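[Q] Does anyone have a clean structure-token version of this?
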Amino acid sequence: MIKDLWVWLFIGYNLNMSKSPIFITGRFRSGTSFLWQVFNELEGYCAWYEPLHPQLLSAIKHVKPKCDHVGINDYWQSYRDKPEFESAYSMQFATKQLYLEAEDEYDELEAYINCLIDLSETEVPVIQFNRVDFRLPWLKAKFPEAKIIHIERNALQLYYSQRKHIDLMHRDEAHYWDAYELMPWCYALQPQFPFLISTDIDHAFYSFYMIYQLSKLMAAEHCDVSITLDSQVFQSNKFIDKLASVVDLSNVQKAQIKSLKHVPDFPVFDEEFIDGLAEIMTAVDLKLSAAGLIDEFGVVALERIQSKRLTFWQGLDNSVQPSAALLLNINQLSGELTRVLAENKQLKEQLDLLLVNSSSKPEDKK
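[A] Here you go.
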């Protein structure tokens, strides 16, 4: 009897360990959607796509997969299957407290993540984030059993991918409204990193690369495994071994994962473009080094880093008012909405059809 009891306890323990949640993190357009797709296709996993999206409830109803997300037919099935998630969701998760250290509290976000884990029921919960880059210490502290998988991409390729929808004449403008929340992130993180907002910044790549580098530094300290999209996915299959280091994968599953991979065409950058961005990268790295962030970001608390570099941090201009800059970008919002509609071709066709029908039947307007 005692022996049987130990057997059942052992089995239960291992089942519980195998159910440890998997968190995917990375910048927008870095390959997080592909990793989500991997787990969404495998048996035994409940994969949640962008649960911190500020328009999640609307996106579930209207947003179709991007054309370059090859093989993905639906982002939102888990939410439709488990509508109970809505009671715990808040659009503020996308912008409120983007920076969280291990001892910080954000009870609503913690409850929401636990809700998604619970709704996964017998399947292993996989949650794909694009907005936890600077919340990883908190995430690790609140969910110590979770496995965190990070994915990163070459900075130039990533910058191009995030900005390619913008007209060429505006693509590099520092305050131009883009699809991947660069300026909202800069404003939200300004209390911690005042140098993200400055009148001296005249190129979008500056703020982009600043956040990119800080994201990499944080991930290096708090993720269980890191995958490089360029060399370990596009140019090889090393990412499969990386995944297998944190989750059990059979040979059949490995073959299935390999079949999901799609290698896109890559843009060719001219030498002048590369040289210009290289200068910005050097300037950013020098600033991060002067701030003490290159050596210690993600390792110790930000307040402690600042206390060691008082001359640098006290000299920063903290007086920039984000509201004024945001107002300058309102006109660009209509262009972004147009882009979203164009990307969502099926919805646009439906709307056009409704307009045609309404104009051809004036009696319906009575």
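[Q] Thanks! Anything notable?
[A] The chain has one domain: 2-328.
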